[in-house]
Structure formats: structure tokens, C-alpha cells
């Protein structure tokens, strides 16, 4: 009887540990996928390279950004606005960016709940933080996509 109880206890602990490890693995996989979509669709696609396939694959067609211009004014930008601006930058020779002009980022905080995530991202040029973005993401059947964003324009951080 004691042997049966011991075997059952060890089996239960092994299954629990395995489930916990899988849960941590899924969380890591989601975090890595979110970091990848922010890098490829947003940072590289919109700013560094202008590679439109990355943009269209990584942003929801309903994406909107709320840009705060000052304390009492904001404006909405859609993914269509961003695509148009990026294509204009490519056409005028302003993309791809090189060297110190390249944009980089750092995820300061990432919260994931099932298929919804929120990322607090420092947007940097030449290694210097220009502003902080708050990016909302959703995990569609095709993967994580950016669905909304808020940031303050022209607010270089110290």
C-alpha cells in the first residue's frame, strides 16, 4: 500500500513538473515570437528597411496608433498611414537606414495573458532612447500581430 502511494505521488509530481515546464516553455516561445514581430514588422519593416511584406504580416489590418503631440492633443494613425509614409521614405532614398541612423529597441516590460499581450518598448536611435511605445498585440491563428500603440511624439527621454 505504501509503495503504491509512493509511486502515485512520484508520478503526480513528475506530471506537474512537466506541465509547469511546458507552461514556462510556451511563455518563452510567446515572448520570443512577440520580440520577433516587433523587430521585423515594426522596427525593421517600418523604420530600418521598409520591407513591406514584414509590415503586412506583422500588423493587424485594423492597427491604429495614438500619437500624443502635447498634453492636450493627439492624433490617430492607421497602418495604411504608416505604409504610405514608409513607401515615401523608400522612394526618396531615406530607407534603408544605416549605422547610427538605425533604429533599435528594448522591451522594458512584457505582459502576456492567453492571446493578448502588452509590451512597453523603448525606441532608440544611435543607442539613445527617443520615446517609449506601449504596444498591444494579439495572437491570431497566423501568429502575433501588432494591433495598437500609444506614444508621445518628440519626447526624447533622458
From TrEMBL:
Q: Which domain of life is it from?
A: Bacteria
| Position of the signal peptide | 1-21
Record keywords: Signal
What InterPro entries does the record point to?
Answer: FrzH/put_lumazine-bd, NTF2-like_dom_sf
Q: Name one Pfam family in it.
A: Lumazine_bd_2
The protein depicted here goes by the name: Lumazine-binding protein
Q: What organism does the record attribute this protein to?
A: Owenweeksia hongkongensis (strain DSM 17368 / CIP 108786 / JCM 12287 / NRRL B-23963 / UST20020801)
Amino acid at each position: 500500500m505504501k509503495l503504491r502511494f509512493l509511486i502515485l505521488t512520484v508520478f503526480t509530481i513528475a506530471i506537474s513538473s512537466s506541465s509547469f515546464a511546458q507552461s514556462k516553455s510556451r511563455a518563452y516561445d510567446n515572448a520570443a515570437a512577440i520580440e520577433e514581430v516587433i523587430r521585423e514588422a515594426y522596427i525593421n519593416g517600418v523604420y530600418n528597411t521598409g520591407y513591406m511584406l514584414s509590415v503586412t504580416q506583422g500588423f493587424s489590418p485594423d492597427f491604429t496608433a495614438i500619437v500624443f503631440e502635447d498634453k492636450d492633443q493627439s492624433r490617430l494613425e492607421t497602418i495604411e498611414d504608416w505604409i504610405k509614409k514608409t513607401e515615401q521614405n523608400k522612394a526618396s532614398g531615406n530607407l534603408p537606414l544605416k549605422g547610427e541612423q538605425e533604429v533599435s529597441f528594448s522591451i522594458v516590460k512584457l505582459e502576456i495573458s492567453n492571446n493578448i499581450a502588452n509590451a512597453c518598448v523603448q525606441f532608440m536611435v544611435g543607442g539613445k532612447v527617443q520615446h517609449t511605445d506601449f504596444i498591444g498585440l494579439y495572437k491570431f491563428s497566423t501568429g502575433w500581430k501588432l494591433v495598437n500603440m500609444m506614444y508621445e511624439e518628440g519626447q526624447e527621454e533622458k
